[in-house]
Amino acid sequence: FALGVFWAISRVGISGVLLLSGKLKERLTLKNFIVIQACLYTILFLGIGLTHNRWVIIVLFMLLSVIRWGSSSLRDHYYLEFIENLPNKASLLSINSFFEKIMTGIIGLMMGYSVLHFGYQMSYVITGVLFVVLVLLGYLILKNKKTEKSVL
After folding, report:
1. Model pLDDT for residues 39-62, shown as the tens digit of each residue
2. Is the pLDDT of residue 147 over 60?
3. What's the pLDDT score for residue 128?
């Protein structure tokens, strides 16, 4: 029963973020969106790994779900803006979707391996630390790139 309640609450949160995606798109450039999303993932993964309270862990997982699925529409808008004038948009979107699914599978396998060898909490701490490194590298790369509004 409780799992269904948490799932429903996270879906309401996802709907709220989806409703706000137009306003977020007006205010955020692609760089800002990437940095904010990466920072939120980092904080949530580290939080899951460092806390022992199951209710906090549940809330953090719900927030991960809200960020992941709620921001998907906004991410798609940025992708479409980036490739809008290219003749093979459908192919590029399909390749992107394929790549995301492959990466999800690889990351899932890596997390499974990590959980088996280090336990749940340490696996999330390791993932959070990797996110910190990736966020810093991404920020350094994106910092010096010139951009138009909302596109790389």
Report:
1. 898 899 999 999 999 999 999 999
2. no
3. 87
The gap between the terminal CA atoms of the chain, to the nearest Å, is: 45
Whole-number Å distance between alpha carbons of 83 and 25: 16
Distance CA 124, CA 49 (A): 5
Q: Which residues of 54-89 are buried (b: 16+ CB within 10 A; e: fewer)?
A: eeebbbbebbbbbbbbbbebbbebbbebebeeeeee
Residues 103 and 19: their CA atoms lie apart, in Å, by 27
Cα(48)–Cα(127) distance, rounded to whole angstroms?
A: 10
DSSP secondary structure letters along 29-90: -HHHHHHHHHHHHHHHHHHHHH---HHHHHHHHHHHHHHHHHSHHHHHHHHHHHHTT-TTHH
The structure's pTM equals 0.78
DSSP class per residue in 103-129: HHHHHHHHHHHHHHHH-HHHHHHHHHH
